[in-house]
């Protein structure tokens, strides 16, 4: 399944400083959900400090997740079933000072 994953607001620093990835997720029996994608990202793309991206089975507080420009809170968060060509964006709202 082909999707786009984007990072912004500093989240890209955890992913080799790349803001955009075109990803082909492998086929599996059950539909891909965002929760599955988070762990796939951790295993395949996350380069450093997983604690700054993930907390328990979700993203850390302070990371805004958009699915096709819609807040994932409106789309069942980690349980959203990913669709072909979805664009999933992770934006960090945490900034040092």
UniProtKB/TrEMBL annotation:
<keyword id="KW-0963">Cytoplasm</keyword>
<dbReference type="GO" id="GO:0005829">
    <property type="term" value="C:cytosol"/>
</dbReference>
<dbReference type="GO" id="GO:0002098">
    <property type="term" value="P:tRNA wobble uridine modification"/>
</dbReference>
<dbReference type="GO" id="GO:0032447">
    <property type="term" value="P:protein urmylation"/>
</dbReference>
<keyword id="KW-1017">Isopeptide bond</keyword>
<dbReference type="InterPro" id="IPR016155">
    <property type="entry name" value="Mopterin_synth/thiamin_S_b"/>
</dbReference>
<feature type="modified residue" description="1-thioglycine">
    <location>
        <position position="97"/>
    </location>
</feature>
<comment type="similarity">
    <text>Belongs to the URM1 family.</text>
</comment>
<dbReference type="InterPro" id="IPR015221">
    <property type="entry name" value="Urm1"/>
</dbReference>
<keyword id="KW-0833">Ubl conjugation pathway</keyword>
<keyword id="KW-0819">tRNA processing</keyword>
<dbReference type="Pfam" id="PF09138">
    <property type="entry name" value="Urm1"/>
</dbReference>
<dbReference type="InterPro" id="IPR012675">
    <property type="entry name" value="Beta-grasp_dom_sf"/>
</dbReference>
<comment type="function">
    <text>Acts as a sulfur carrier required for 2-thiolation of mcm(5)S(2)U at tRNA wobble positions of cytosolic tRNA(Lys), tRNA(Glu) and tRNA(Gln). Serves as sulfur donor in tRNA 2-thiolation reaction by being thiocarboxylated (-COSH) at its C-terminus by the MOCS3/UBA4 homolog. The sulfur is then transferred to tRNA to form 2-thiolation of mcm(5)S(2)U. Also acts as a ubiquitin-like protein (UBL) that is covalently conjugated via an isopeptide bond to lysine residues of target proteins.</text>
</comment>
<dbReference type="GO" id="GO:0034227">
    <property type="term" value="P:tRNA thio-modification"/>
</dbReference>
<protein>
    <recommendedName>
        <fullName>Ubiquitin-related modifier 1 homolog</fullName>
    </recommendedName>
</protein>
<feature type="cross-link" description="Glycyl lysine isopeptide (Gly-Lys) (interchain with K-? in acceptor proteins)">
    <location>
        <position position="97"/>
    </location>
</feature>
<comment type="pathway">
    <text>tRNA modification; 5-methoxycarbonylmethyl-2-thiouridine-tRNA biosynthesis.</text>
</comment>
């Amino acid at each position: 399944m082909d999707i786009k994953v984007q990072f912004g607001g500093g989240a890209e620093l955890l992913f080799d400083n790349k803001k955009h990835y075109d990803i082909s997720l492998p086929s599996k029996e059950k539909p891909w959900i965002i929760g599955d994608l988070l762990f796939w990202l951790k295993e395949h793309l996350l380069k450093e400090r997983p604690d700054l991206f993930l907390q328990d089975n979700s993203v850390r507080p302070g990371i805004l997740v958009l699915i096709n420009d819609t807040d994932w809170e409106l789309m069942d968060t980690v349980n959203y079933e990913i669709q072909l060509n979805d664009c999933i964006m992770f934006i960090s709202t945490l900034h040092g000072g």
